[in-house]
Write a structure and sequence with these properties.
The complex is a heterodimer of chains A (113) and B (107).
Chain A lengths: L4 E3 L2 E4 L5 E6 L6 E8 L3 E9 L2 E4 L8 E7 L2 E6 L8 E8 L7 E2 L3 E5 L1
Parallel strand pairs in A: 2-11
Antiparallel strand pairs in A: 1-3, 3-8, 4-5, 4-9, 5-6, 7-8, 9-10, 9-11
Chain B lengths: L3 E4 L2 E5 L4 E7 L5 E7 L5 E7 L2 E5 L2 E6 L4 E6 L8 E9 L2 E4 L3 E6 L1
Parallel strand pairs in B: 2-11
Antiparallel strand pairs in B: 1-3, 3-8, 4-5, 4-9, 6-7, 7-8, 9-10, 9-11
The chains are: A mainly beta (113), B mainly beta (107).
């Protein structure tokens, strides 16, 4: 398996633009997690899904952020409109269960100008 | 107040030294994770613990549920162990993260 795949790896956009980050989890993994990492706040869990259903989205910072998982092999994290404070590295991870290790994607480095 | 506290924040060691990184938490947990983030940014899950001890190569992780404390030990440290080590706990549906320990191992 290729591991967790994220795209794009880097994204530079201007304030106010819509940004869509994509993630393909490892096949057979029932859990998918979206994280954000910044120097100021460290690693934060934004939302996670189990069998395509959002379980906890309490980490989503505000209504500008939304995440979907239309099927078991694809998820998106959307920011609309983007703001400079959204600049961060966004990681996607998947796991076969909650009681086991998670496998992380390489991350998407987002810069909002 | 942070639900997860790590110590030390920064650690420099000579190659070959035994290293301990500590994690204390204040919530009831279902599991505790140790993550490793290399300078390139990639994150690897090292261990998931709910009790006792786990060992993988030169890495050992222990947890004391009663004391709400976990340690990550690295034996015979090597420069390639230089990374940020992050402790994370799961409490119900919530996840809480430490701010990380930055480890530098000098040859």
């Amino acid at each position: 398996d290729a591991g967790v795949i994220q795209s794009p790896r880097h994204e530079v956009t201007e304030m106010g633009q819509e940004v869509t980050l994509r993630c393909k989890p490892i096949s057979g993994h029932d859990y998918l997690f979206w994280y954000r990492q910044t120097m100021m706040r460290g690693l934060e869990l934004l939302i996670y899904f189990n069998n395509n259903v959002p379980i906890d989205d309490s980490g989503m910072p505000e209504d500008r952020f939304s995440a979907k998982m239309p099927n078991a092999s694809f998820s998106t994290l959307k920011i609309q409109p983007s703001e400079p404070r959204d600049s961060a590295v966004y990681f996607c991870a998947s796991s076969p269960g909650l009681a086991v290790e998670q496998f992380f994607g390489p991350g998407t480095r987002l810069t909002v100008l | 107040k942070n639900e997860v506290e790590q110590s030390p924040q920064n650690l420099t060691a000579q190659e070959g030294e035994f290293i301990t990184i500590n994690c204390s938490y204040s919530v009831g947990i279902s599991a505790l994770h140790w993550l490793q983030q290399h300078p390139g940014g990639g994150i690897v899950s090292l261990f998931m613990l709910s009790s006792g001890k786990k060992k993988h190569g030169r890495l050992i992780a222990t947890i004391n549920i009663q004391e709400k404390h976990s340690s990550l030990h690295i034996t015979a440290s090597h420069p390639r162990d230089s990374a940020v080590y992050i402790c994370a706990v799961r409490s119900g549906n919530q996840f809480y993260f430490g701010t990380g320990t930055s480890l530098t191992v000098i040859p």
